[in-house]
TrEMBL record:
Gene3D superfamilies found in the cross-reference section: Glycogen Phosphorylase B
Organism: candidate division WWE3 bacterium
Start and end residues of each Glycosyltransferase subfamily 4-like N-terminal domain: 15-174
Ranges where the Glycosyl transferase family domain occurs: 177-339
The protein's name in its UniProt record: Glycosyltransferase
InterPro entries assigned to the protein according to its UniProt record, in alphabetical order: Glyco_trans_1, Glyco_trans_4-like_N, Glycosyltransferase_grp1
An example molecular function term from Gene Ontology annotations: glycosyltransferase activity
Superkingdom of the source species: Bacteria
Length: 362
């Protein structure tokens, strides 16, 4: 089977969508399928590495002109656009072309509508944005399109957006870690885009608040982003720069190493659906403190792998951090609980099995 993945982000890593798509594509290739990923972007604020033409047997192509999309769609049996509510061009064009050619189309949605105020759509005028959203709603409702969401919460959000069909829930999968235990170098770690959208300002404020209370914590910030220098400057102005190790972009294969060196993973984002890094942290026995957005609250409650605070609540974040760092037994218990829960549910094999079953049913 010839399968085409299409999106508008770096093809191998950079964020959760990129990492998961490539992992799924690699597993599908290992099972004997011919898989290609096309994308309009070679790099982003969170990924600056090189892009090979092939990796793990997956063919990788950077689309420079939207007219190229039709050729890739024509050559494929199944088209799997990976979409966010930025609604960038390559993914949208892949859906258009696939429908025009009568191909099997399975759209995986990775963000909710609350992402729109922070998305690429904000560059458009209000009327242009509404036209784009209306077109996407119509595409998803086309009888030739099947829609996938990673959680019931996102499926409900798509229904509220106007998708009037059954949405298939396929949880994202994670490659199981093999990193050995490591000495704890950091009290806290956060992984991902370094920006105010991801709540790094709240993390800095909470570290300052804890310092005022007599608790000096160390933190690692792994990732790049358009506001990297701005967040560093904030840390300096708060006089906590010596407590934070700004690692910059690190390859995804090193993420587990940084997690293993940390006592608690903090994810203070303002907008999320189901962050890959939270599951990665729990699989590494690391408890999580996350803002109560998207599926974060439900995931941490069901797994017992961490706690949530209301987004933007610096005092609440600081209090949650303090609870963990003052109770090693709690850290260990929640870390173990999260690992058991995620190891049973979030694997690439399970995700690919469900996707293949869905393809075969079409």
């Amino acid at each position: 089977m010839n399968i085409l993945f299409a999106h508008d982000y770096p093809p191998i890593e950079g964020g959760g969508l990129e990492v998961n798509t490539f992992a799924v594509a690699s597993e599908l290739t290992a099972r004997g399928n011919a898989v290609t990923i096309i994308t309009s972007r070679r790099s982003s604020e969170t990924f600056m590495g090189g892009v090979p033409a092939e990796q793990n047997g997956v063919q990788i192509r950077i689309v420079k002109d939207l007219q190229e999309v039709a050729g890739y769609v024509q050559a494929a049996d199944v088209i799997c656009p990976q979409m966010t509510f930025s609604l960038r061009d390559c993914g949208i064009e892949a859906i258009r072309q696939a429908l025009a050619m009568g191909k099997v189309v399975i759209v995986s949605q990775h963000t909710a509508t609350n992402h729109i105020p922070y998305s690429n759509l904000q560059r458009l005028s209000l009327s242009q944005r509404n036209v784009r959203l209306e077109e996407y709603r119509d595409l998803l409702n086309n009888e030739g399109v099947a829609v996938v969401a990673p959680s019931i919460m996102l499926a409900d959000d798509l229904t509220s957006f106007g998708v009037v069909k059954d949405i298939t829930i396929i949880p994202i999968g994670i490659e199981q870690p093999n990193t050995e235990k490591s000495d704890k170098k950091y009290d806290l770690v956060t992984v991902g885009e370094v920006s105010y959208l991801k709540g790094l300002n709240y993390l800095c404020d909470s570290i300052r608040l804890l310092k005022n209370e007599g608790m000096v914590v160390t933190a690692a910030v792994a990732g790049g982003g358009s506001e990297f220098e701005l967040v560093k400057a904030l840390a300096s102005s708060l006089e906590i720069a010596d407590q934070i190790d700004f690692l910059g972009y690190i390859p995804h294969k090193r993420v587990n190493n940084v997690l293993a060196q940390s006592r608690v993973m903090v994810h203070p984002s303002l907008s999320e659906v189901m962050p890959l890094v939270i599951i990665e942290a729990m699989l590494m026995n690391v408890p999580v403190v996350a803002s109560n957005v998207g599926f974060c609250g439900s995931l941490l409650k069901q797994s017992g792998g961490g706690v949530v605070f209301e987004r933007g609540d610096v005092a609440g974040l600081a209090a949650s951090i303090k609870i963990f760092l003052s109770n090693e037994r709690l850290c260990t218990a929640m870390g173990q609980s999260g690992k058991v829960y995620c190891k049973e549910r979030y694997t690439i094999d399970v995700q690919v099995d469900r996707l293949v079953k869905m393809i075969e049913s079409r």
